[in-house]
Amino acid sequence: METLDNIGSLPHYSLLALVWTSFSIAFLFVGLRTVIRARHADRLTADDYWIFLALATLLTLCILETIQLRSLYYITAVIAGVIPIGDKLISTTEDYLRFEFPIIILFWTVLWCVKAGFLALYYKLFRDLALYRRVWYALATFTFLAYVGCLITLCLSCGHISNFFAFAQCGKPEHIWASNLSVYYSTVIDVFTDLCIMAMPIRLIYNVKISRKQKLGLVCVFGLCFVMIAFAIIRAKQVLVQQYFVNLTLLMIWSTLAASISVVVGSLPALKILVTNRSTAKRSQYHLSSARRRAQSGNNSSRVKAMALGSISSDKKSITGRRLDTSDSQEEILQPDSGRFVLVKHEVVSWPVPSRKRRLQDLTNDCVQ
């Protein structure tokens, strides 16, 4: 068995370590995301639960891959000519196929759970915008139908579904053609949905009045799907080979990495707050010092006992720089020292209702934190 463990592109225990290291990294990012959300949000939202489902699916995927490793290395040794073909090959291959079918379904489920997480995040941005909301519903429906299409093409790629679990039942030319078609479809539709998800908020980011640095940060957050696209393409190249024998070791490596990276990418938008907290703290300190200086200046001017009413401007601004709506009233009071009447002007301040664009800007900042 020691000889079999060293067959293939990566030794048995190295591949096992890679599988569980990938899952551990994904688990670490999801845990960090959960801690941040628990500290900065009142409750978990739909995008959090989709990432939890993706992590649970990834865990199931890694468990099945671990069980499948022994049969994988035996088949690899037979293909390499290290051990002769025997009766054990049939039972070992059927054991491998018994796990490979659910592993493929779990792999696509992880990717689509992450897509659903991004769509749930977008819904917070678009629910108050009629046009964007309709586009969101169309994209969410298309993404769901694309996932169903992946399952259908997989089930039909080998004739009857029972052929997946039998030895040498999917080797006919029509089955190989259908299997390649399933891989092409699932990869293309995966890349296309990722591109649609990335492109959806571009116009919104362009119209929101925020700094160029903040816009660049949002583009980076929503452009993380490019990483998922790269791994999906590399994995497809491991499956679409000219020969009949696929490198099973590389297929497992890239499948595990693609699924784990997708969970990490889905967790990164919530981690943006770790980067923005420092700059936000600096801006808050600056505004606080400015407010203190203005308050001190106001206290010095209030020491004057009397001033002309005409010099009091009704165009006031708050500490934050927003224009205030004021309504003025005057009262006559008796000044005790001189016995004269003095007009005193009162201001009733009302805060303006934030505009729709202002609410959208605040919501954009909240969604990426």
UniProtKB/TrEMBL annotation:
Bilayer topology term: Multi-pass membrane protein
GO cellular component terms attached to this protein's record: membrane
Keywords: Membrane, Transmembrane, Transmembrane helix
Subcellular location: Membrane
Keyword Transmembrane: yes
Annotated Rhodopsin domain residues: 32-275
Transmembrane region(s): 12-36, 48-67, 101-123, 135-162, 182-204, 216-236, 248-275
Family the UniProt entry places it in: Belongs to the SAT4 family.
Annotated protein name in UniProt: Rhodopsin domain-containing protein
Organism: Lasiosphaeria hispida
